[in-house]
Amino acid sequence: MIPPELAALRSPAAVRARSHQVLDYVEAGRSPHFTLARAALDGVADYVAEVTRQDYPGLDIPYHSRWRHFDAGGVARWQALAERLEGVDAAERARTMIDLAVVSVLLDAGAGDAWRYQEEGTGLTIGRSEGLAVASVNMFAAGGFSTDPAQPLRADASALVALDAGTLGRFFQVSEENPLVGLAGRAALLNRLGAAVAARPDVFGPGGRPGGLHDTLAPQARIGRLPAEAILKALLDGLSIIWPSGLEVAGVALGDVGRHPAVRVGDLSDQIVPFHKLSQWLTYSLLEPFEASGLAITELDALTALPEYRNGGLLIDLGVIVPRAPLDPAHKHAVSSEMVVEWRALTVALMDLLADRVRERLGLDASEFPLAKLLQGGTWTAGRRIAAERRPPAGPPPLAIDADGTVF
Fold first, then answer.
1. Could you tell me the CA-to-CA distances from 207 to 87, 95, 140, 384 in Å, in that order?
2. Is residue 307 a contact partner of residue 348, using CB atoms and an 8 Å limit?
3. What are 171-209's pLDDT values in tens digits?
4. How many helices (H) and strands (E) in the chain?
5. Where are the alpha helices (DSSP H) in 28-127?
6. Would you call 322 helix, strand, or coil by DSSP?
7. How many Cα atoms are found within 13 Å in the side-chain-facing hemisphere of 206?
8. Strands (E), 128-244
């Protein structure tokens, strides 16, 4: 039995509340790492609104999710796969979409500056997150996550548990000349995914597929409406064993959390700031599969912004988060370091403050422009663009991270 104060960390409310505690701590001048310039948020809002209008002139902004990356280079890869599902019912289509989204998101930590994927069918060469997405969707199309040759378009526990780094590396074209950050870590993460899916039929169903999540959550919908947080909570419960974590409390592996002195409470969760970045990115990426099955996903803004380096880098590059000392690009900071934990928490909290400013500039309200669209419109693209301007040509983040391929 998990102590209740630790179980409470598995919620977006805990991510948000504790991130805002870190914000208050930094604004009080107590941080040795950063100061804040709130007034600069207006300039960030102007920049994000401009980027959003450039990319979506009609403001028909989709959710920030893995599905955007599958279309990299203007190629409708999912649409081509969907044609192979002709005749299957809506529930099975949703299971297939969930299978694909789960494995692809878990492969979506930073690729590094050197890795590229050359797509045979299109001749495109694609790097970073989009390249990882294209490699993963092509591996899925080839049956790389299925043990059943008659049903290649699925991911099952047996295939995931058996997947090794060499096989993953072949599908992702990894070599000495084309290195991918954290290849072994990515394969191990998928192995743990397979074990988790097999161990939790109450969450993922008896079929041993991530897509079984659809059958567990669909009956929880009321009048066809399912809160977004229900998806996240199921993921945080069902996938709790997969996250590599250097932080364990009372024998509980807490996953994507960090320690920070801003959070002081008199229980086992003292100084712990949860993030659950990949779980929330996965939740955003499962909105469309559940909607494709006919459900309406509600209360999107219960989720938080994603504490990753594009959103966080935007806030440093445009002067909201101000380092007390110049950042050395040659010095990589551990994900668990107080400085990176603080940066990630500030990103979550400041995106909440930024959202209303961007909505005002676009003439949209929160129901029309939830965080899922702010990120897409939006802050992630803006973070990438400003990084490319400031640090060409690759555009790395302003704060260098010693990533292991499982968080960023």
1. 20, 11, 18, 39
2. yes
3. 999 999 999 988 998 999 999 999 999 999 999 999 999
4. 18, 12
5. 41-55, 66-69, 77-83, 90-106
6. strand
7. 0
8. 225-227
